Amino acid sequence: NRKRIFVIGFIDHKLDFKFPSPIELKKTVFDFLEPKVAPKYYLGEKGFKFVTCHNGRAKINETVMRTQKANQQFNWNGNFIFEKLDKSKHDKDILKRAYIGTWEGSTGVARQLTPRECLRLMGFPDTFIIPVLDVHAYRQSGNSIVVNVLRELIKEIERCGAFNE
Questions:
Q1: Contact 146, 123 (CB under 8 A)
Q2: ∠ CA 26-27-30 to the nearest 5 degrees?
Q3: Strand pairing class (101-103; 78-84)
């Protein structure tokens, strides 16, 4: 849980700023997933077995994702995606890397979120260019403010006339 504090202040104390009302979430993580994912994001046997057996440290197919903790050797703490085995989606390159296992009675593979999927979850459009390595993209998306929240704050700052000064 990465809590954010938003402090908005104005020299003119007469401005009528109100924090935007909460917006009901209508999407789940599955609305942000890419249809085709590179093989490097799929877990091998050790990773698959860890994330499917350590429910307290790793979660699979949650509708709301939590971030993965960085650690020195593996990033198997956090949330992962389990995909039922699909020969049309999981080509030979993916199957060469991914471990095929069983989770909740289904046969399939597990993978981490891609940097693009992480950025989508933070509200960035697909046109946003990722000019850095994955490790940096993950860190940057995790440290980012949710774009939609920033947009709503700016709308309210405009509405109360702060930019008219």
A1: yes
A2: 160
A3: unpaired
